[in-house]
Amino acid sequence: MRYTDRGIHHRWLSPDAVGQNLFRALKERDKGIAMLISERNRTVIVDRFKDLKSPIVVQFFESSLSCPSCPEVRQLLEELCGLSDLLTLEVVNIFADSDKAEAAGIDKAPAIVLTNAAHADFGIRFFGVPGGYEFGTLLEDIIMVSGEDSGLKPATRAKLATLAKPVEIAVFVTPT
Amino acid sequence: MRLAHQFALESPNVVAHMVDASEFGDWATRFNVYGVPKTVINNTDDHSLEGAAPENMLLDKVLAASGA
């Protein structure tokens, strides 16, 4: 199964899964053969990206220390952003470019922040590998941000508009 | 997961993180994440949710956490 296939089950934490995928991906990459996004998935994604309405900047925060999955996530994003002229990848090293990382409030890697062309931050973040089902989330999010429409029900929008204080939501997942 | 990001896009007061619990084990342990998905709001277990949450349920939790 390719890394980006959506085969998805909520399951108990499996710390080994990401490591095994990483190991396989890096090994194949060393042989110079592997794309992380399969040909079939590329075709599907290019078709989905026809829905993109405005340019998106995908900011990737990486670290050269203690981040074994960073090279893999970076490659994944490079491949993904290559699939549409409306997508730009910006890579920020959280230590070398600490000013930029602090400005975005990012102190961990790998992290992904989706912004528009003017770098407006909508508070959409991914920490870790956006693999498996969460790769689908990343694609949907990119299309959503590009259209600047949350797609929520009118009643939900009205209630959210009354929020007076900042709220931080963290959703823990395991990309499988 | 996507619902939280939809909330973030809709409201300038909402920030939403997807956290890979296997990569960020310490973060997950801090909020007693034994199964996924688990949603934690404002860094406390007071308004957390286990399993996939429908729109209304997440909204209620977010409003409760913000004191609305």
Biggest interface, chains and residues, is:
A-B, 52 and 50 residues
CATH superfamily of chain A: Glutaredoxin
CATH secondary-structure class of chain A? Alpha Beta
> Any idea what the shape of chain B is?
globular
What profile does the largest beta sheet of chain B have? 2 strands, antiparallel
| Backbone CA Rg of chain B | 12 Å
**Low confidence ranges of chain A:** 6-15
Note the total helix count of chain A: 6
Oligomer description: heterodimer
Describe this entry's structure for a reader.
Chain A has 176 residues and is of the alpha+beta class. Chain A has helices spanning 15-30, 39-48, 70-81, 98-104, 133-147, 154-160, and strands spanning 56-62, 87-93, 111-116, 121-127, 167-173. The termini of chain A are close together. Chain B is α+β, with helices and mostly antiparallel strands and 68 residues long. Chain B has a single domain (2-65), classed as Glutaredoxin (3-Layer(aba) Sandwich). Chain B contains 3 helices and 3 strands, in the order αβαββα. Chain B has helices spanning 2-10, 25-30, 55-65, and strands spanning 14-20, 38-41, 44-50. Chain B has a two-stranded antiparallel sheet with strand order 2-3. The chains are: A alpha+beta (176), B alpha+beta (68). Chains A and B meet through α1, β4, α5, α6 and β5 of A and α1, β1, α2, β2 and α3 of B. β5 (167-173) of chain A pairs antiparallel with β2 of chain B, so a sheet runs across the interface.
